[in-house]
Amino acid sequence: MSEGRHILAIDQGTTSSRAIVFDDQARPVASAQVELTQHFPQPGWVEHDASEIYDGVLSVARDAIKKSGVGVDGIAAIGITNQRETVVVWDQMTGEPVSNAIVWQCRRTADACAELIRKGHSEVIRDHTGLVVDPYFSATKLRWLLDRIPNGQRKAEDGELCFGTVDSWLMYKLSGGKSHVTDVTNASRTMLLNIQDLEWDPAMLDLFAIPEAILPDVLPSAGDFAITDVSVLGAEIPITGVAGDQHAALFGQACFKTGMTKCTYGTGAFVLTNAGQRVPSPEAGILSTVGWQVGSKRAYASEGGVFVTGAAVQWLRDGLGVIGSASEANDLAVMLGDNDGVYMVPAFVGLGAPRWDPDARGTITGLTRGSSREHLARAALEATAYQVRDVIHAMTGSGKGSSTPLRADGGQTASPFLMQFQADILDRPVEVSEIAETTALGAAFLAGRGMGLWRSDAEVGRLSRAGARYEPAMADSQRARLITGWYDAVERTASVTG
Question: Per-residue pLDDT for 334 more than 80?
Answer without folding.
Answer: yes
